[in-house]
Design goal:
alpha/beta, seven-stranded parallel beta sheet, four-stranded antiparallel beta sheet, 23 strands, globular
Length: 509
C-alpha cells in the first residue's frame, strides 16, 4: 500500500531513522523517505531510512542514540531488537556554544501575582507545613495536618492548606555522609521555602536525626512561623497531636495576612521534569518547555534542569552551553560520579529507558537523554548544583538529582523551585505541594484520554499545527497564570501530600 499523507517525522537531514506519527502497516510506501516498510512500525517508533550495517551508529536529532547490533535494512523497525549501547567519545567543548542572552528590557518584562515574604523571597502558594524528622513521627504529623479540614480553614481564605511532609528515613542511618547531607539539605530547604507561611517540625525523640540537632546545625529559632517538638517530650501521640494543632492554629491568622501583588517573572524558579516519556516527548513537549524556559530566562527568571541519569549521553550539549569551563566541569564531575555510583551497586547508566518508555518508542538512554535535555532550552548554563542545594543563580541551571521523578522534584523544591513543569507522553500523574505542578502532554491522544490530569496539550507540534516557539509561549503564559494562583490539574485533584521523597543514599543499619 502507499501513503498519501506524511506519516513520519524527520528531525535532522543527517538522521538515518525517522519517527512514526501513526502506526504504519507492513509494506507501506513512505514517499517522503522513498522507502517501503518491511514490518509494522508502531506509533512513536523508528524506521530506518537507509541500510545500516552492524556496528554503525543510529542517528536521531543529528546525534548518536545507539549502534546497530545487526544489519538493518531501509524500511525496518529500529528498536531494542537491533540496537545496542556502545562506548564512544563525546567532545564536551566547554562553552563553545555560549552566547549573550537576549534579555527582555526590564520595563517590558512579564509579571505575575505573587506573595512577597518579609525576607524578600517570593511565594506562588501559601501553606502551613508539618515536617517530620523521622518516619516514626509520620503518623502524628498526618493526624495534625488532617485536623485542618476545609471547614476548619474556611475562615482563612488566603491559606492554601496544611500539609504533612513525611518520609522513610531519619534513623537507621549514619549521621554523616552523602545520604545524611541530602536529608539535612532537603528538610532545611523545605523549612525555608517561601511557599510556607509557617512550619511545625515533629520528631520522636530518640532518632538519629534529632530535632534539637537540626535546630543547632541550621540555626533554627522558634517563633510565630516555626515551632518544633518531639513525641517523647510532649507525652505521646495524642498529646503531640493536640499540641501541634494548637501551635498551628496560632500560625493561621498570621499566614492568612499574605496577599498577592504584581511582581516580575524574575522571581520565578521553574523546575523542569519529565516522566512517563515517549518518543514524542523529545519532539514536542520537551523542546516546547525548553522554549518556555528560554522565555523565563530572558525575563530574568531561573530554570532548573535535573535528573542526571536522564541527560547521560547528552551532557555534551549542555557543557557546550556552559557559561565557563568551571560550570561545565561541575556537570561532568556529576556524570562521572553517577558512573561510579551505579557500578558500585551492580547497575549501569543504561538501565533506562523504562518498559513504558520502550513501549512508547524510546530505545536507549541516549535517545531518552537527548529528548530530556531539550527541556533546558537554548540559553547559557550558568551554574550546576548538588541535590537540594539552594539555587541562587538567575538563568538556566542544572541540579544533580536521580531520575526518579518524586525524588528529583523534591530536590528542586528544596533548592527553591516555586513552580514545576512536568512533561509526559505515557501519562504520568504527579502533584507537588507546596509547589504547583503543570502537566504537559506530548501527544493529543494521551491528552484527550487523560484530560483531567493534563494542563497543556503539546500534540499540535507533532501534528504540524503549532511551532515549538508558539507552544513555548503558550506554556510560559500558563506558568504565569498558575504562579498567580490558578490551580493546576494536579492541585485540583489533591495531589502533592505524598510526593515528598528525599534522595536516600547509604546503608540502612
Amino acid at each position: 500500500m502507499s501513503s498519501s499523507t506524511i506519516e513520519t517525522i524527520r528531525l535532522h537531514g543527517s538522521d538515518n531513522v525517522v519517527t512514526a506519527k501513526v502506526t504504519i502497516p507492513e509494506n507501506t510506501k513512505i514517499s517522503e523517505e522513498e522507502l517501503i516498510t518491511s514490518n509494522e512500525i508502531p506509533v512513536g517508533h523508528k524506521v530506518a531510512t537507509s541500510d545500516i550495517t552492524t556496528g554503525q551508529p543510529i542517528r536521531k536529532y543529528d546525534q548518536i542514540i545507539g549502534f546497530a547490533s545487526s544489519n538493518i535494512k531501509a524500511g525496518e523497525h529500529v528498536h531494542t531488537q537491533n540496537v545496542e549501547m556502545q562506548s564512544f567519545d563525546r567532545d564536551y567543548k566547554f562553552g563553545v556554544d555560549a552566547k549573550p542572552t537576549d534579555y527582555v528590557p526590564e520595563p517590558e518584562r512579564a509579571t505575575f501575582q505573587g506573595i512577597k515574604r518579609s525576607d524578600g523571597s517570593v511565594a506562588t502558594r501559601n501553606y502551613l507545613g508539618v515536617m517530620t524528622s523521622v518516619n516514626c513521627s509520620a503518623t502524628a504529623a498526618r493526624m495534625i495536618a488532617e485536623s485542618f479540614t476545609d471547614e476548619e480553614l474556611q475562615n482563612y481564605p488566603n491559606v492554601d492548606g496544611v500539609v504533612a511532609y513525611t518520609h522513610g528515613t531519619g534513623c537507621g542511618q549514619a549521621a554523616s555522609g552523602l545520604g545524611w547531607d541530602f536529608l539535612q539539605a532537603t528538610i532545611n530547604g523545605y523549612k525555608g521555602h517561601p511557599n510556607f507561611a509557617g512550619m511545625l517540625m515533629v520528631g520522636l525523640g530518640c532518632e538519629v536525626n534529632q530535632v534539637a540537632g537540626m535546630m543547632e546545625r541550621h540555626d533554627w529559632q522558634q517563633d510565630d512561623a516555626f515551632q518544633a517538638m518531639t513525641i517523647q517530650d510532649v507525652g505521646g501521640t495524642m498529646a503531640t497531636v493536640r499540641e501541634g494543632v494548637a501551635r498551628l492554629k496560632e500560625m493561621l491568622p498570621i499566614a492568612n495576612e499574605a496577599t498577592r501583588e504584581t511582581l516580575p517573572a524574575s522571581y520565578l524558579k521553574l523546575g523542569l521534569e519529565c516522566g512517563g516519556s515517549d518518543a514524542y516527548s523529545g519532539i514536542s513537549a520537551n523542546p516546547s518547555l525548553g522554549a518556555a524556559a528560554d522565555l523565563l530566562v530572558r525575563n530574568g527568571g531561573t530554570a532548573i534542569l535535573a535528573e542526571t541519569p536522564e541527560i547521560y549521553g547528552a551532557e555534551h550539549l549542555l557543557t557546550r552551553r556552559a557559561e565557563n569551563r568551571a560550570v561545565g566541569e561541575k556537570l561532568v564531575d556529576f556524570i562521572k560520579w553517577w558512573e561510579e555510583y551505579t557500578a558500585k551497586n551492580g547497575a549501569e547508566m543504561n538501565n533506562n529507558p523504562s518498559p513504558g518508555n520502550k513501549a512508547g518508542g524510546l530505545t536507549t538512554i541516549l535517545e531518552k537523554s537527548l529528548g530530556a535535555a531539550a527541556k533546558g532550552g537554548t540559553t547559557n548554563l550558568v551554574d550546576v548544583y548538588q541535590y537540594a542545594e539552594q539555587v541562587t543563580a538567575q538563568g538556566f541551571t542544572f541540579m544533580n538529582t536521580p531520575g526518579y521523578d518524586v525524588a528529583s522534584i523534591t530536590g528542586m523544591v528544596a533548592g527553591g523551585a516555586n513552580i514545576v513543569c512536568f512533561t509526559t507522553g505515557r501519562g504520568s500523574v504527579f502533584g507537588c505541594k507546596p509547589v504547583p505542578s503543570i502537566k504537559l502532554a506530548s501527544n493529543g491522544a494521551m491528552f484527550e484520554h487523560m484530560s483531567e490530569d493534563m494542563d497543556i496539550n503539546c500534540g499540535p507540534v507533532v501534528d504540524g499545527e503549532a511551532t515549538i516557539a508558539e507552544m513555548g509561549e503558550q506554556i510560559f503564559n500558563v506558568i504565569l497564570d498558575i504562579a498567580s494562583g490558578r490551580q493546576s490539574k494536579s492541585e485540583a485533584l489533591g495531589f502533592g501530600s505524598d510526593e515528598f521523597v528525599p534522595w536516600q543514599i547509604g546503608a540502612v543499619m
